[in-house]
Amino acid sequence: MTGATAARRNDYYRRLDPLSMAPLWEVLGDLVTPSPASRCRPACWRYEDVRTLLLESGDLISAREAERRVLVLENPGLRGESRVTTSLYAGLQLILPGEVAPAHRHTQTALRFVVEGEGAYTAVDGEKAVMHEGDFIITPSGTWHDHGNESDGPVVWLDGLDIPIVTLLDASFAERYPEEAQATTRPRGAAAARYGCGLLPVEASSGGPASPVFSFPYARTREALDRLRASAAVDACHGIRMKYANPLDGGYALPTIATFIQLLPRGFRGAAHRSTDATVFCVAEGEGRTEAGEETFTWGPRDTFVIPSWWPRRHEVEEEAVLFSFSDRVVQEALGLWREEREPFAGATA
Ligand code: 1HN
After folding, report:
1. Arithmetic mean of pLDDT, 148-162
2. Which of 89, 156, 159, 165 to mutate to test the pocket of ligand 1 (most atoms within 8 A of CB)?
3. Which end of the chain has fewer CB within 10 Å, C or N?
4. pLDDT over 90 percentage in the chain
5. Which domains does the chain have, with CATH numbers?
């Protein structure tokens, strides 16, 4: 291109600008890439590095004042945007003995994976679920929720929310409950008894888009994985991987965040694979390594790590390990976008 052509084009672009118009040909290559070109980077937060700082926040601000006392896990490629991946938010929340995180509701969907401590609770639409390490709890869009800690030690969990998705769609609504804690209207375990025992009410309505079972205790999950270890096929990439499911339709437990638990058997050497859903992993048990492109994360219990869209990854363990994970796969599947590829890869890798 000659200097004269460039000058003519720039002059032309300047005249488009006041009309809020711009030439597509200058940006097309960045908008429609041959494969995912994410700013999201692989990252790992080791719990031993994070824990002391997280507990220090307990001296700085109360759960009541903070509303939620959380350290946001910001993806290094997306600093300042409160995102762990392009489409999802994650944070580590601390609640101290006797504290209450006040009741509220919002259109954003949330999940919790309990990382440390016992005996805190989340109340969801009038029912309390007590937390134990490894428990998975959901607060679907629009449900009232508050947390409390009735134990004598700190309790920490990983929060995952679909905040960037709701922001993309400009569909955020939120409100505070008139009191600090919502009234308990159903006994503990009511939702699990009604929907989570392989039984369903005969007159059940089809339900909303999220699972009516909102707590998935680790003891049951672990027992299932133990039995599957002896009987299930071990996937070359994922080990024994299960999704948390909505008992009403067998779909994912949440409409915007897919959630998984996987057992990597002793001596597992995973094959490399890549998928279009950037995935956040939290280590429930065990130790291992995950390669993501050129990076290798060595992880242990309570660590959190993230693998971006389309980055090849491979898990390895010496002894058995259990990983919780979440991603936007459910959204991508609904839109016909989700892809996975296993080695050997067809095209260039990220
Ligand atoms: C929220 O409601 C919780 O309920 C945690 O524990 C983290 C981050 C952003 C917006 C709402 C919770 C949150 C959140």
Report:
1. 98
2. 159
3. N
4. 96
5. 43-342 (2.60.120.10)
